[in-house]
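Why do we care about 3D structure at all? Because function follows from shape, and shape follows, mostly, from sequence. That is the central idea of this module. The next example makes it concrete: a single protein chain, its amino acid sequence, and then its structure expressed as tokens.
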Amino acid sequence: MVERTFLLYGDRGERIVSGAAALAADAGFVEVSDRAQANFALAPLLQRKLSDEEIATPTLVFHPSLLPRHRGRDAIRWALASGARYSGVTWFWADSDYDAGDVCEQGVVEIIPGERPRGFYERAIDEGLRLLAFALGDIARGIQRRRPQRLAAATFEPRWPSTVDTTIGRADGAA
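And the structure:
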């Protein structure tokens, strides 16, 4: 029997990272620390662009928006500030561009009026982990679902200005 292995990027102190690791183990994958031994990688809280060497290993990345909308680091803040009634989460396969790889799984998450970014993020994690369980089941069966993102619908948001509060418009940075 061929061992199914994965590499994990991220701090296990973060709920999405530890949850992703647990789901991968539950799906029968063994965590390795050497990229050369990994069948794929999980990056549930990626805050940087992966190198070409790193993306040579298929890498599933979590993003807290419905890509290709709100690419970038502050997707939640931009979604809340836009007045949207919903946003969501995406698991996508990393490529050489920011948040632009093929989509594996997506799910919608309602934005609650007056909600703060952390509240949305916590609910987004729940949906992200639910979707990851489906994706890992497929990967365990040899299926890597990939749907290209619609480039015409893509937005890339800059970093959120630290002096603006997302939910109530105060200029004090409390978000």
